[in-house]
Design brief:
By secondary structure, the protein is of the alpha+beta class. Helices cover 36% and strands 16% of the residues. The radius of gyration is 24 Å and the shape is elongated. The model has no long low-confidence stretch (mean pLDDT 84).
Length: 183
C-alpha cells in the first residue's frame, strides 16, 4: 500500500478535476432555432375523423398511417384528439366493441392547439407542460391544418445540430475512435 497522504492527494486532485468539469458552463443550442415558426418543422397533415366515427375506424386509420393520434372534428372544426394514450388508458382492458362505440366518448376534448406561425418553443412548452406527444395545428377558424409530434420537434433539433449529434460515439461509455472502412 502507498503512503496515506499520497492517496488523499490523488483523491483530492481527482475530486477537483471532476468538480471543475461540472462547474463549466453548459453548452447550449442557439436559442434562435426555437424562435422559428412551427411551419418550419416537418409536421404532418391532419388525419381527421368526425366525432361520430367508430373507434375501430380510428384505430385502423392510425395503424395504416403509423401515427399516434387522429384529430376529431364536428363539421370542419376541431373538437378533440384521440391518441394512442387515450386508447391505452380508456379502452384497452374493457369489453368494448370497437365497431359500436364512437370516438367522441374516448377522445380528449378541446385539446391544446397551436398555429403554424407560433414558434417552435411554444410547441415544446405545450408538450412538456401538458405531457402531450401530439399537438394539433389549426387555422384561424379552428380547422385542422396539421399535427406536430415530439418526434417532429426532435427531428428538427437534430437536423439543426446534426454535426454535433451524429458524430458522437455509438456507445457513450467508450472513447470515440473513427472506424476505418473496408477490409
Amino acid at each position: 500500500m502507498g503512503d496515506p497522504d499520497e492517496i488523499d492527494k490523488e483523491n483530492q486532485d481527482e475530486y477537483m478535476i471532476v468538480s471543475e468539469e461540472r462547474a463549466r458552463p453548459r453548452i447550449t443550442v442557439d436559442e434562435g432555432i426555437f424562435d422559428r415558426p412551427i411551419r418550419d418543422l416537418h409536421y404532418h397533415p391532419p388525419l381527421c375523423l368526425q366525432r361520430t366515427a367508430k373507434l375501430a375506424a380510428a384505430v385502423k386509420l392510425m395503424q395504416q398511417h403509423s401515427v399516434g393520434a387522429v384529430m376529431i372534428q364536428e363539421g370542419e372544426r376541431l373538437i378533440g384528439i384521440l391518441s394512442e394514450r387515450d386508447i391505452l388508458r380508456k379502452v384497452l382492458g374493457t369489453d368494448l366493441n370497437l365497431n359500436e362505440v364512437t370516438v367522441e366518448k374516448y377522445m380528449t376534448r378541446n385539446p391544446e392547439v397551436l398555429k403554424l406561425d407560433d414558434v417552435i418553443a411554444y410547441a415544446i412548452r405545450t408538450m412538456h407542460v401538458g405531457g402531450f406527444r401530439h399537438v394539433p395545428l389549426v387555422d384561424n377558424e379552428h380547422r385542422p391544418v396539421g399535427i406536430v409530434s415530439v418526434k417532429d420537434v426532435n427531428d428538427y433539433i437534430v437536423s439543426v445540430i446534426a454535426q454535433q449529434i451524429l458524430t458522437l460515439p455509438p456507445d457513450p461509455h467508450r472513447k470515440y475512435e473513427p472506424r476505418v472502412e473496408g477490409g
